[in-house]
Amino acid sequence: MEKNLPFNLPIADKAYNDYVIPFLAKLDDGNVFKNFITTILKISMYGFLIYGIYLSISGLFGDRGFFSSIDRYDGWQGIGAYVGGPIGALLSIVVSWLGYSLLKKRIEQLYAEPYDSLLNYLYKSLFPKLIIITGELAFLLVMSAGVFQLLATLLGTVIYRPLANLIPMLIEPLNGLPGMRGITRGMSYYNDAIGNYEYFFNSLSQAIMLIIMSFIILMFYYILVEIYKYAIKLIVNIIKFLPKFAIPLAIRNRTEN
Question: Do 154 and 208 meet the contact criterion of CB atoms below 8 Å apart?
Fold first, then answer.
């Protein structure tokens, strides 16, 4: 046991060896930083699940809830909406669980990444993983929006899809990429999935377009990761070629006769 104080004090020595030394060791091997980062991400992971379940249930009721808004639909659309509401809520809970599962796996992979320094861990491991997570969540939500629209089209009624309103936040980073601004602008807001047999092919095309767009968005995010890695590699190589500045110092010995 290492001594903490110049004099013998067992309590201080024990606390020093049990807490201070292990904490410093975890700082040196990066576990403190890795645990902090993954803890924040785990909070987001559970938040996504809980918030998704909350939206799925709470949005059904209230003055502005799903059931209050279906009075404007007539015939089968109005009747079927009473089935489409619970179905949409249940499927949205499943989507929330899928998003939670994606986050869980990616966070575990991030924690398993090797650590040699904090800066390297941030730009080599954390930032690329965050881009991938954002892309996969965007893919999941846009895909689910397309599936909900497909169900609404086939059933000819209204399907409740509360999680679709989270999509604009996830696809916003794509606005700066060539060709994506018009696409993301058209996906800026989602109402409930509406199906009507009088406009069957129009609704079906919307559903198919959403499903196709989910894969395009996922590919864009994976391309974004490659662009990020290439930019980092380019910056590192430029830094390596920078000239090393040094101030030459000459020490002269003067011999006086």
Answer: no
